[in-house]
TrEMBL record:
The lineage of its organism: Eukaryota, Sar, Alveolata, Dinophyceae, Gonyaulacales. The chain crosses the membrane at residues 63-83, 104-125, 145-170, 182-209, 215-242, 262-282. This is THH1/TOM1/TOM3 domain-containing protein. GO terms for cellular component: endomembrane system. Residues 149-315 form the THH1/TOM1/TOM3 domain.
Length: 369
């Protein structure tokens, strides 16, 4: 009985200690002290608790919020220009399909930049100890879980946006090589949906099983793998399109520099994605210690830089000409031009004067004079 009483007493003391420790994390306003939050985040990211470093991180987050907001505003203005220039982009013409793909890509980039700007603002608020509503009752480990989720989900949206360029270039490549792939769009949609379902399942399982620290590791590995896959696919199909259509683009649109613009994307985007993909895989496999400073730099280099490059490349809508209309798309294909050339030689005329009707004596042949 004495041992049972002492064990119950020990459990009660530990419960009171844990309760008092939780109360230390929150004051009467429901805010976690910023010093405790910074220490908790630094421990989760393996960063040293340095006041100067924390100020630099806050400054870098503020710059990221501003830059991603500017990119979102730029993409919104470009989306409005595209909508005004081609309000009736319907049909199966290649030019119409390209305009629809451009509009959809700019819309995805607008959504991705907006979500990333809001994500950085939410991270900044979480690191400062701000909380409201249900977050007031969350434990520190749960707040770290929420911070990892908020930081990594925008990366998936950016990858979905740039995978649309991969899809468009793959369609151009297989159309040029006359390889029919009618289910390519379905495969693209299924892969994107599967990635979001996988991340949602991991987030739900880690939260329900209270394995809060595992979310960042698992999703970091997934994002690193997707970065590498998108970079390789982007470079391969972009290079194929450049090699196959550079002569045609120079003949059809000599002043628009289509080849040079695609090459610029091939240089900027895959390098940035491979850099972040390798770093994230090293973090996920515990080969390197996670650093919040490095993560913010990788976020700016692999999301903001490719996004701005794509928006700048898409900005010149129609140089030196009017927007493409419904009548202009009838002559946008050169595949059948050799079959439609008119014969310049005059047609033979018959004795009756009807064109296309002529007589030729087969037998007997007239004697040569």
């Amino acid at each position: 009985a004495g041992r049972i009483g002492s064990s119950w007493l020990g459990l009660g003391q530990r419960a009171l200690a844990s309760r008092s420790a939780r109360q230390l994390y929150s004051d009467r306003s429901g805010r976690m002290p910023a010093r405790d939050v910074r220490a908790l985040v630094s421990a989760a990211w393996s960063d040293p608790c340095d006041p100067g470093r924390e100020e630099a991180l806050d400054w870098l987050e503020g710059v990221g919020i501003l830059l991603f907001g500017v990119a979102a505003a730029f993409s919104a203005s470009l989306l409005a220009r595209i909508s005004r220039s081609s309000p009736t982009a319907t049909g199966t013409s290649p030019v119409k399909a390209g305009l629809r793909m451009r509009r959809l890509l700019v819309a995805w980039l607008f959504a991705a930049n907006t979500v990333r700007s809001l994500s950085l603002a939410a991270e900044f608020a979480l690191h400062q100890g701000a909380s409201s509503g249900a977050l007031q009752h969350w434990e520190p480990a749960q707040r770290v879980w929420l911070g990892d989720l908020v930081a990594l989900v925008p990366a998936l949206i950016f990858l979905s946006a740039f995978s649309m360029i991969v899809l468009f270039w793959a369609q151009l490549h297989y159309t040029t090589t006359i390889v029919p792939l009618p289910l390519l769009d379905c495969v693209f949609v299924c892969i994107n949906v599967a990635c979001y379902i996988l991340v949602t399942a991991i987030a739900a399982c880690t939260f329900l099983l209270q394995a809060y620290s595992h979310l960042g590791t698992y999703v970091t590995c997934i994002v690193g793998f997707l970065d590498t896959a998108v970079a390789i696919s982007f470079f391969y199909y972009g290079l194929m399109v450049v090699l196959e259509l550079r002569d045609t683009s120079r003949k059809r649109s000599p002043g628009r520099l289509l080849t040079e613009r695609v090459v610029a994307l091939l240089i900027v985007c895959p390098v940035a994605w491979l850099l972040r993909g390798g770093w994230y895989l090293a973090w996920g496999l515990a080969l390197l210690h996670r650093s919040r400073m490095v993560d913010l730099i990788l976020c700016l280099s692999s999301e903001l830089l490719p996004s701005l490059a794509a928006l700048v490349v898409l900005n010149p809508l129609q140089r030196g000409g009017a927007p493409v209309g419904a009548t202009d798309t009838l002559n946008d294909s050169t595949d059948s031009e050799p079959l439609l050339q008119e014969d310049a030689s005059p047609q033979p005329r018959s004795i009756t004067g009807v064109p296309g009707m002529a007589w030729k004596q087969l037998y007997p042949q007239p004697a040569a004079v």
